[in-house]
Amino acid sequence: MSGRLIAVVGPSGVGKDTVMRALAARAELGLVRRVITRTDAVGEDCDVVSADAFARRRAAGAFLLDWEAHGLSYGIPVEVRAALAERDMLVNLSRRVLERAAALVPGFMVISLTAAPEVLAERLAARGREDAADQARRLARRVELPEGLHVVEIDNGGPLERTVETALAALYPVRA
């Protein structure tokens, strides 16, 4: 593999998918299309499948990586390995599976997006996927990143362009 698998992680509402789309539009980065058992995928570019279809795919070895979160199943198609032969790929991953991903893919790195709690609360309310109680639970969750990973932390509480420029500088530093 010559490309890197680059996980984009952060709390709900931090703008992971928005940042990934903006990065892919500016650089030679591919986007990994996740498989999810969600009934609606507003704002996400993913393949929505039933729980039964997901289980069949998992049993057939169709996923490089899969996990459960918030009552849903998520999978990263095994075809991502072929895409990595061509270029770097961005993927929205759960922070809980980062160590597994690092063990599976050489050169794995993480972009950890952050934003102030009030920014996250505003974004969660605007997207309207959860009720107020679910939003509060998501805002209260704290998941520490595992030690030993290549992690770049970026504040996404301001303008998207600033976040994109910071991420591109971290991913592709200018060599003297």
From TrEMBL:
UniProt domain Guanylate kinase/L-type calcium channel beta subunit: residue ranges: 2-171
Class of enzymatic activity (EC top level): transferase
Alphabetical list of NCBIfam families matching this protein: phosphon_PhnN
Gene designation per UniProt: phnN
Keywords: ATP-binding, Kinase, Nucleotide-binding, Transferase
EC number(s) from the headed UniProt entry: 2.7.4.23
Protein name (record): Ribose 1,5-bisphosphate phosphokinase PhnN
Species of the source: Pontivivens ytuae
Catalytic reaction annotation: alpha-D-ribose 1,5-bisphosphate + ATP = 5-phospho-alpha-D-ribose 1-diphosphate + ADP
Presence of keyword Kinase: yes
Residues reported in the UniProt entry to bind ATP: G10, P11, S12, G13, V14, G15, K16, D17
Pathway: Metabolic intermediate biosynthesis; 5-phospho-alpha-D-ribose 1-diphosphate biosynthesis; 5-phospho-alpha-D-ribose 1-diphosphate from D-ribose 5-phosphate (route II): step 3/3
Gene3D superfamilies from the UniProt entry: P-loop containing nucleotide triphosphate hydrolases
Xref: Pfam families: AAA_18
